[in-house]
Amino acid sequence: MNGSASHPTGIYETILYGEDLPAMERFYRDVVGLWLVSGVEERSRGFRVSPTQMLLIFRASETLKGHPMVPTHGTTGEGHVAFAIERGTYDAWKERLALAGATIEKEVEWPVQAGVPETVGERARSIYVRDPARNSVELVEGDLWPR
Amino acid sequence: MNGSASHPTGIYETILYGEDLPAMERFYRDVVGLWLVSGVEERSRGFRVSPTQMLLIFRASETLKGHPMVPTHGTTGEGHVAFAIERGTYDAWKERLALAGATIEKEVEWPVQAGVPETVGERARSIYVRDPARNSVELVEGDLWPR
Asked: Which of residues 20-49 of A touch B (CB under 8 A)?
């Protein structure tokens, strides 16, 4: 045994579910702008979000069947994920989403919370859209959670 | 408008669902080792995983009711998340999980894939456990996806 195991270094894989993988692929590649790096035709798509992060899309109808190598999983209903966008790109994202035909469901300007490293006049704000499986996809400018 | 909106900088919030929030809190704080930074008693818990990443746990029975500020969401069934652990801590994590009374459901040594920056003799491997809501929680040592 070597090394310490006090906490993980990060979240490596974030998972969402959707049955129509071609539509999910188009959404996350063309609307969100992620890089598709892997896929198993009827089961999954894998997007590299950053050097340390992946977004995986699974068809629950497949993952619930069981797999020789990995545990079963799979949810139904509307999940949720939030992506960080760079400061100063909020309006550019709204324009991009409009061009891509994505409907903005809501915009939120976050209240100031204790412990949040918020800069005066640079409050965190979010844009919400839906992916083809109706998962709630949020794009966040700024940090809204305590550290 | 300023800045470019070509892709997000990362995944900011990863979401899992579980009805028993005190049990979920104990698991993610004491077993996984995350830092609890926020909570709305009957609705949610927020863990700071890294300076750029949050894990949020929601009770779907609450989030599906609707909220004045944010869109509805909520899933049922067994979700999935994978945390990255530091190289060399795999055995220490197994010991930690055993001490915490967590049952290891499966261990996987990943096959070498094209494009994966794997080092000979340092193949990626995973430990799988279940959280109190039966979400499949994976701890990954190494990188197993193409870049």
From this structure: 32-35, 37-38, 46, 48-49
Q: Please state which architecture CATH assigns to domain A1-76.
A: Roll (3.10)
Tens-binned pLDDT, residue by residue, of chain B (147 aa): 456 899 999 999 999 999 999 999 999 999 999 999 999 889 999 999 999 999 999 999 999 999 999 999 999 999 999 999 999 999 999 999 999 999 999 999 998 766 666 555 578 999 999 999 999 999 999 999 988
Report domain B8-73's class.
alpha beta
CA dihedral of A115, A8, A11, B41, whole degrees rounded to 10:
-50
Is ipTM > 0.90 here?
yes
Chain position carrying tokens 């305590």: A146
pTM of the model: 0.94
Distance CA B6, CA A31 (A): 9
B114 touching A, CB under 8 A?
A: no
Q: Which CATH superfamily is domain A77-147 in?
A: 2,3-Dihydroxybiphenyl 1,2-Dioxygenase, domain 1 (3.10.180.10)
